[in-house]
Amino acid sequence: MESFFFVPATKMNKIQELRKLKINTFIIDFEDAIKASQRSDFFFELDNLENSKDCYLRVPIHNLANPKELDLSLLKAFMDKGFSRYVLPKINSVDELDLVLKILDHDSFDIILLVETPKLYLELLSMTFENLGKLTGIGLGSHDFMSIIGAKHQLDNLEIIRQNILYLARAWEITAIDIASMELNNETSFKKEIIDGHSKGFDAKFIIHPNQYKILNSFQFYTEEEYLFALKVDKVVSELKNSKEFNPILIDGKIIEQPHLNKIKKILKNYRK
């Protein structure tokens, strides 16, 4: 699984050090992680961060006084500075999502939708929206979501919601990112989340601390036996004259069909010797 690492804007100076860990992607958080009064100061500090435009920005898009009213001034200011990667938080509805995506009107944008409100979640399951093609990833902001519902944040309460977020990602052919964990001292709980997310089929996970990344990065998702079998399948497929017209083949007593090849590629990509 890949990692999407949230870093508060107040700590963006630590990103250069964190890059040594080879974290996949950073998300600089200008929303919940800092005070509204600090945003303008750290807006300019981005100029001093090397490769800052490689990072995603989680940018508040609502009026402070009225959370149901859009305020895209900060988003537009980042766009004017040439930033093109964004995480969109606390969208209230599909209509609101369309309004925001219309502002992001270039093909060069990478946009992750953070689903944090029940209304948006239900509408995404039942409605279409005209700017779907602009999304590159989707994840569940599970703590905000559970807070609105008034439910305890635990995996069994999140089961159906996470599964549906994954289905949306697959239907839309975008990256499925699993929930962030606030458990920094409970390694067992975090590992349980990783195993559960991987077994469901998530591509990546939100993380908030270097120790979480180290656990995720050291995790062995596949056995050596699975890896060796994947190598064998890949070798056979590579020798086929036309892999696009793939017929089922029998390898070591297992029938391999076209849909199985996606898992084979995933094993070969993520296995750690």
Map the helices and strands.
Elements: E1 2-8, H1 15-18, E2 25-29, H2 39-45, E3 56-58, H3 73-80, E4 85-88, H4 94-103, E5 110-115, H5 118-126, E6 135-140, H6 142-149, H7 155-172, E7 175-178, H8 187-200, E8 204-207, H9 210-218, H10 224-238, E9 249-251, E10 254-256, H11 260-270
Parallel strand pairs: 1-2, 1-8, 2-3, 3-4, 4-5, 5-6, 6-7, 7-8
Antiparallel strand pairs: 9-10
Helix pairs in contact: 10-11
Cofactor: Mg(2+)
Domain HpcH/HpaI aldolase/citrate lyase: 3-210
Protein name: HpcH/HpaI aldolase/citrate lyase domain-containing protein
Gist of the model:
41% of the residues lie in helices and 16% in strands.
Describe this entry's structure for a reader.
The structure is a single chain. The protein is α/β, with parallel strands linked by helices. It folds into two domains: 2-218, TIM Barrel (Alpha-Beta Barrel); 224-270, no CATH class. 41% of the residues lie in helices and 16% in strands. It has eleven helices and ten strands. The protein has helices at residues 15-18, 39-45, 73-80, 94-103, 118-126, 142-149, 155-172, 187-200, 210-218, 224-238, 260-270; strands spanning 2-8, 25-29, 56-58, 85-88, 110-115, 135-140, 175-178, 204-207, 249-251, 254-256. It has an eight-stranded parallel beta barrel, surrounded by four helices. Strand 9 and strand 10 form a beta hairpin. The radius of gyration is 20 Å and the shape is globular. The protein starts with a strand and ends with a helix. The relative contact order is 0.10. The model has no long low-confidence stretch (mean pLDDT 90).
Termini separation comes to 15 Å
Rg over alpha carbons: 20 Å
Estimate the helix proportion, in percent.
Answer: 40-55%
Mean pLDDT: 90
Any idea what the shape is? globular
Q: Let me know the number of strands.
A: 10
Q: SSE string, helix = H, strand = E?
A: EHEHEHEHEHEHHEHEHHEEH
CATH class of the largest domain: Alpha Beta
How are strands sequenced across the largest beta sheet?
A: 1-2-3-4-5-6-7-8
Organism: Maribacter luteus
Pfam family, one: HpcH_HpaI
GO molecular function: catalytic activity; magnesium ion binding
Protein name: HpcH/HpaI aldolase/citrate lyase domain-containing protein
